[in-house]
Design a protein that fits this description.
Length: 127
């Protein structure tokens, strides 16, 4: 199991539950401007490898596991540079936006329950 990215969840913005119900979960490295913090899960990275995950890689949030089904061509670059991940819970085979990571495997309610300060966010390589 190769962990490509590991981060510790901190604050959860007040608009995160509404976005999550709409099928989107946004992460930003702690320290972003307030307008971004309102819509984001803030986190502090511990491991940041430049190798991008492939289709079938796993995103783990607490005990919840999501399979990556598509990844935009700029998504991993934004993750490493800014700590910015946009997860679309649509299970799509093609990312519509360059910074998007499409995932499947958990409901918005399950993810909401997993989002807690101190929980771990990980991206684990396939295989």
């Amino acid at each position: 199991m190769t962990v490509l990215y590991r981060s510790r969840i901190g604050d959860i913005g007040p608009e995160v539950p509404d976005l999550l119900e709409g099928g989107v979960l946004i992460f930003f490295r702690a320290g972003v401007p307030a307008e971004l913090a309102e819509v984001s899960v803030l986190h502090t990275p511990e491991i940041e490898l430049p190798t991008p995950p492939g289709i079938g890689a796993t995103v783990r949030i607490g005990a919840q596991r999501l399979a990556i089904t598509a990844i935009g061509d700029k998504a991993w670059e934004k993750t490493i540079e800014l700590g910015h991940l946009t997860l679309s819970l649509n299970g799509a085979a093609t990312a519509e936006r360059p910074g998007e990571i499409c995932v499947a495997g958990a409901s918005p309610a399950d993810l909401a329950a997993a989002l807690a300060s101190g929980a771990t966010l990980e991206v684990i390589a396939a295989g």
